[in-house]
Amino acid sequence: MNDDRLPGQAEGYLIHLDRALDQLPVEDRAAIVADVTDHIRAQLARGEAIEQVLANLGAAQEVAAAAFDRPMTERVALLPTRWWTATRVAQLTAAALFAVAGLLIAFVPLGTAVTEGSTPNGTVLSDVQNTTLADDVGWYAVMAFVSVPLLLAIVPMLLDGHAHRISTIAAAVLAFLFCVLALASIGLFYLPGVLALIAAAALLALRSKEARSAIYYEHPVT
Amino acid sequence: MDEAEARIAANLRKGLLEFCALALLSGEQRYGVDLAARLKDAGLIASEGTLYPLLSRLRTARFVQTRWEESPQGPVRRYYTLTDTGRRQLEIFQSLWPQLRANVDQILKESL
User: Fold this and answer.
1) pLDDT, tens digit (0-9, with 9 covering 90-100), for A105-141
2) Which of A18, A26, A158, B77 has the highest CB neighbour number within 10 Å of its CB?
3) What letter does residue A215 receive in the DSSP assignment?
4) How far is B110 from chain A (nearest CA, A)?
C-alpha cells in the first residue's frame, strides 16, 4: 500500500464519500472507501490530473447512492448454505429431549391415588397407589402431550427458506407458552427441550444478522 | 441526456451491470480502474465511482474475491477474480439472456 499523501481535493472527496455511506455496515463502507482511494492513487500514478480523476468518479453522493440500490438477490440467499445449520442441530436436540420427556411422562408414576374402603367389621382400609399420567387423563391425552412438542421441534427442522424461519420462531414461542402454562404439572419435563427450541430461534436470528454484514476482504500481502 | 432518458437507462442497466462485471472477470483478473473504464465505455455505469459499491456487494456475496499485486508502475493494485459461485451465477445469466434478448427484440420489432 502506498502511503503518499493524497491531494487535498481527494481527501475532501473521500471524507464526503465516507459520510454519505454512513447507513452501510461498517465493513462495506470501509471497503468502498478503500477501493475508491486505490482508484484515485492508480489514476494519479498514471499522470492524470486530480480534477479529472474526481470528475470521472462522479459525485460522492452519486457513488454512495449506488451502494443503496438493492442487490439483485437477497444477500442471505447468496451465502453458501448448509442444510445442517446450528438451528437445525438445536431443533434435533430439542426433539431428542422431548422424546425423553415424553417417555418419562408416559411411564413414570407422577401421582398417587388413594382408595379408601371399610371392611364389614368397621376397620378403615386405605390403599395408596402410584399412578401414571395415562391413568389420570387417558392414553389419547398422553399421546398428544408427547407428540405435539415433538412436532414443534421436527416440523420447522424439515421446512426450508421462509417457512423454516417463521416456523422456527413460532415453535419456540408456542413451546415456551405451553411450558409456562404447564409448569406446575408436567411443564418442567419439557423445559430442556423448550430451551433448545429457543436457542434454535436465537441462532437463526444471529445467523441472518451475520449474513447481512458478512464480507470477504483480503489484506495486502505486501 | 435528458431526465427521462437517464432514468430509463439507469433502470435498464440495473439488472445487467452485475453480470457484465462478472463476465469481464471470467477470462482474466482485473483491477478496479480497468473494470471501471470498460463498464463506463460500454455505458453500463454512469460514472466510474459507482462501480465500487457494486464490487463491495459482489465480494459480500462471494461472487468475486480480491488479491493484491505489484503493478509495473505506481501503487500496489487490488485485483478482482471470479469465485466458483460467481462463475455459476454468470453461467445462469448466460443461459437466460439470449432468449430474453430475442423475445424483447421480437416484441420491439412488432411495435415498429
Assistant:
1) 888 877 777 777 777 777 777 777 777 777 777 788 8
2) B77
3) -
4) 30
Alpha helices, DSSP H only, in A46-128? 50-57, 60-67, 75-78, 86-107
Q: Identify whether the C-beta of residue A184 lies closer than 8 Å to the C-beta of residue A47.
A: no
- The answer to whether the Cβ–Cβ distance between B78 and A35 falls below 8 Å is yes
Q: What is the largest CA-CA distance in chain B?
A: 53
Eight-state DSSP code of residue A184: I
- The percentage of chain A sitting over the pLDDT mark of 70, rounded to a whole number, equals 85
Contacts of B71 in chain A (CB under 8 A): 42
Minimal C-alpha gap between B109 and chain A (Å): 28
Q: Is B58 exposed, middle or buried (0-12, 13-18, 19+ CB in 10 A)?
A: buried
d(CA B57, CA B61): 6
Chain B interface disruption, residue of A6, A43, A72, most B CBs within 10 A: A72
Report how far residue A191's alpha carbon sits from residue A174's, in angstroms, rounded to the nearest whole number. 13
**Structure confidence by residue, pLDDT tens digits, B13-52:** 888 999 999 999 998 999 899 999 999 999 999 899 999 9
The SS3 of residue A112 is strand
H helix runs in A159-222, sequence order: 161-181, 188-213
Cα gap A37→A62, rounded to integer Å = 16
If you ran DSSP here, which 8-state letter would residue A24 be given?
Answer: S
Distance CA B53, CA A69 (A): 9
Q: Which amino acid is at A183?
A: L
Residue type, A67: A
**Distance between CA atoms of residues A1 and A24, nearest Å:** 25
Q: Which of B78, B59, B82 is nearest to B70 (CA)?
A: B78
Q: Which of A194, A200, A192, A197 is nearest to A178 (CA)?
A: A194
